[in-house]
Amino acid sequence: KEIQVKSFVNALNTGDYIYYFDKESNKNYVYLNTSVPKRIRDYEYHTVEECGQELYFPDLSLEPIPCTADNSGYGVKLNNATEFTIGSMSNIKVKVQSNEITRRIKPNRRFIFNHSEHGIYEIKDIEVYNTGILLFTCDKSLYRPQYDDLENNVADSTHGSEDIKPPIDDQVKTYTIKGC
Description:
- With about 180 residues, this protein is mostly beta strands.
- The protein is about 0% helix and about 45% strand.
- The strands form three sheets. The protein has a six-stranded antiparallel sheet, with no helix packed on it.
- The protein starts with a strand and ends in a 40-residue tail after the last strand.
- The relative contact order is 0.15.
- Mean pLDDT is about 80; it is low at about 160-175.
């Protein structure tokens, strides 16, 4: 959901979060400023998007990272023979503020939305969307019950923990054979 915000000149930068508490609904909202401001007289107008999701990477930050997520939906693929295929793609684009925490997120990291095994994605590409914003292009990922913590919304919950051993099934087994 996009809305337009009016501010004083230089009060908001691209990539800034805006925190808003609605007293009527008793709900907190977080918006991400995704635009370059348009100046009209003594004010600037910004387009902001509601952050409807949060990313959890406990090895990077104990606080959730507000983000926007947009389903890319369908796409067209062309080949050399000028044939094309229209198909469903299960990828999304995620926008976050560019800061010292989010710049440490690398491709191939996985995350979970809404505590659901159907809301697991893997970051495939990272772009600088605008100064102040990172854009993650993500593909759907499979649920890995031994690593994914749905309750806490954390995929690859062992990421960054060297002292945590993989499940017994994934450990290398060594056998000694005597005789002969």
